[in-house]
User: Fold this.
Amino acid sequence: MISKCRWKLLAMLAFVLVVMVWYSISREDRYIELFYFPILEKKEPCLQGEAERKVSKLFGNYSQEQPIFLQLKDYFWVKTPSAYELPYGTKGSEDLLLRVLAITSYSIPESIQRLKCRRCVVVGNGHRLRNSLLGEAINKYDVVIRLNNAPVAGYEGDVGSKTTMRLFYPESAHFNPKVEDNPDTLLVLVAFKAMDFHWIESILSDKKRVRKGFWKQPPLIWDVNPKQIRILNPFFMEIAADKLLRLPMQQPHKIKQKPTTGLLAITLALHLCDLVHIAGFGYPDAQNKKESIHYYEQITIKSMAWSGHNVSRGPLAGQWTGLLNTQGDPERAGVIQKIITNRVEC
Assistant:
């Protein structure tokens, strides 16, 4: 009799254990789905023109007629020259820009143009991407935008392998496009100064290399197909600075407040796409000086403290943290967050 009771008790315990394990797994799956799992797995509807409608609430009188990339034809018989110098315009750099545009292109791939609704993701370089396993999800977007010299090779499981566009500037061009990008990736030059045009011209035309005028020496040899190069319209730098960060367009030379490449990429995405998500944005907490800033290297907040790209101090430190919280102007911050995504995946 005692033996039968023991068997019944063991059976009940086994049943309870199975139920607990099942419940635990289901909760874990739900956690992954809500906070970590690919957005597109949920088949979120893509509404044509949705980003444009939301952006208009933030930017006010905003036109999406502006071309994403600069075109040669726009600089012949110009009736309304640019009002600003680089990086917010092309004033004073027109002749140099003409030479660059003559050897580059401006088209957007037909595969993107024909989409009725464009799903886009801007992939940041943040440490939180490490071990995120977001690679498969990222690859499912129509447009994947990457930043600077962030590597893909060796990190595909976390950051994906698809790259539609990569924004860069000369000092950040220390990557091999044939290794880190796809054959049809658009390499989008963000020009901060006239020397950036000199550099890309010397690379593509094999002219005498430019060595001075950079805060970091750019590559002197860069194996790239000129057909992949695009020149970003400075309009997006102006919008990011003026409408999002509310920076003055005319600043003293000693003050160099400019939008980050990440903020610029998202501004571009809001112009091009109908649905925009972001992943891998944000810096470690300022108190956590030992955590890596990027997913691909061991540089920390502490080691960057006195570099030219200081992320721990200064008026623009934590641009995205400032934009995506509710301090200062809750209504505006809320609009910005909803425009980009209902949920930051990483």
User: Anything to note?
Assistant: The domain at 47-340 is CATH 3.90.1480.20 (sialyltransferase cstii, chain A). Residues 17-41, 310-318, 320-346 have pLDDT under 50 and may be disordered. The longest helix spans residues 2-35. The CA atoms of residues 8 and 14 lie 10 Å apart.
